[in-house]
Amino acid sequence: MAQFFKAKPNKSKQTFAKQQFEIDHLDHLGAGVANHQGKVVFIAGALPGEMVSAQIVEQKKRHAKAKLLKVSQPSEHRIASSCQYYGKCGGCDLQHLAIDKQREYKQASLVTLVEKMGKTQARQIVPALAGEPWQYRRRARLATNYDRDTKQISLGFRALASANVVNIAQCPVLEAELSALIAPLNQSLNQLAGKRTLGHVELIRVESGTFVVIRITQTLSAGDIERLKVFETEHQVSLQLLSDHGQMTGLTQQELQPCYTLDDGSQLSFSAGNFIQVNGVMNRKMINQAIEWLDVKAGDRVLDLFCGVGNFTIPIAKTGAEVVGVEGVVEMVEQAKLNARQSGVADTPFYHADLSADVSEQPWLGHIDKLLLDPARAGAFESLQWLKKMKPKSVVYISCNPVTLARDCEPLIKQGYQLSKLGLIDMFPQTHHIEAMALFELAK
């Protein structure tokens, strides 16, 4: 039998009317939370104590999301943003809240998540580690977008909840020298014949200099290379090209590698693909606090998991402790070994291992005195399953995701550890992102 297409009735999305909401608190993602007709409603941009007009844009069984339309009764802690792109650019989302209140909110969110999800309480809530609220980022990745109509590229950050690029001339959370590069770099890139083949652009400013890394999808012409060399010379930067295959090429024979310096004089080199903390000042404070909390002493056996390029491993080695670094990215392991040599602790061992897999046969797994963890957002749940073999007296856990930190409290508590200290590291002011440090100690 022949089957014919029959159009179904057009069911357009339901349109909700504007409603009034009273904001009770902020969630851990920085959105205002209201209780409305028996349902929790999340409203980004709203603050506790405010009355706002908003329109529901997403309905779920137990919660909803709404778009903020107007603040009828503003909070006393609401401030005007100093950035012309705020609300358009998807980078910052808390510039409307005074910085001291930002930190109070983040600390409170961290404690609440650990208590509710982790089902434990810290014996001591430590004052937040904090630095400058502006001009703190030493590294940033900018997106590019080529417009076929205007034949121009935009350079900036992705728009909020969108793939569109917000064209920017400056950014107040970047270090001033990096922010000042954006407008002239945009102008220079738009003069290239091969501008439509450009990918993202990375800006880096560390002790060894200022670096501009441009991802290219096709080889640039000799003329374009000369134009970029002019920019490199005029702005005294090291400009490098990153191919689709991950190959880095400098424009000059004297290619430099970015290198940052720690308080103890350690010099850590890295490449554009390596992870480093974007806030250099806070990174140094974090390292010092981690070593203090672990109470590292000469002769201690310390294991540093997710060690990266040796950010914690090398400073710990300089205390005289026996430290081992383990990392899941091969290139970063090799970089960490190089960093150890150039920092005077060449005998520090580094290993490559998938820390989400079975590590029972790894040569570094065994009894240790102290453990440091600095995992990615996914957390360290799998690694903590091997605590019985390690038996450290104390564990310092650095987290960039309080949800997975709270989850990972469970295996630690089950193995007889107690949460001794917990505190915020305000690594990303003007955003909701929460970096934290927790100290777990084996109960006596």
* Count of DSSP H/I helices: 8
CATH architectural arrangement of the largest domain: 3-Layer(aba) Sandwich
Q: Provide the number of structural domains.
A: 3
What is the 3D shape? flat
Provide mean pLDDT, rounded: 94
Give helix % range.
10-25%
Beta-strand segment tally: 23
Task: Tell me the β content.
Answer: 25-35%
In angstroms, what separates the terminal alpha carbons?
78 Å
Strand order of the largest sheet: 7-22-23-21-20-17-18-19
Task: Output the CATH topology of the largest domain.
Answer: Rossmann fold
| Estimated structural class | alpha/beta
Topology:
Elements: E1 19-22, E2 25-26, E3 31-36, E4 39-44, E5 51-59, E6 63-73, H1 99-116, E7 124-129, E8 139-147, E9 152-158, E10 165-167, H2 176-189, E11 198-206, E12 209-216, H3 222-235, E13 238-242, E14 248-250, E15 259-261, E16 267-269, H4 280-294, E17 301-305, H5 313-317, E18 322-327, H6 330-342, E19 350-352, E20 370-373, H7 387-390, E21 394-399, H8 402-414, E22 417-425, E23 435-442
Parallel strand pairs: 4-6, 7-22, 12-13, 17-18, 17-20, 18-19, 20-21
Antiparallel strand pairs: 1-5, 2-3, 3-4, 5-6, 8-9, 8-11, 9-10, 11-12, 13-14, 15-16, 21-23, 22-23
Helix pairs in contact: 1-8, 2-3
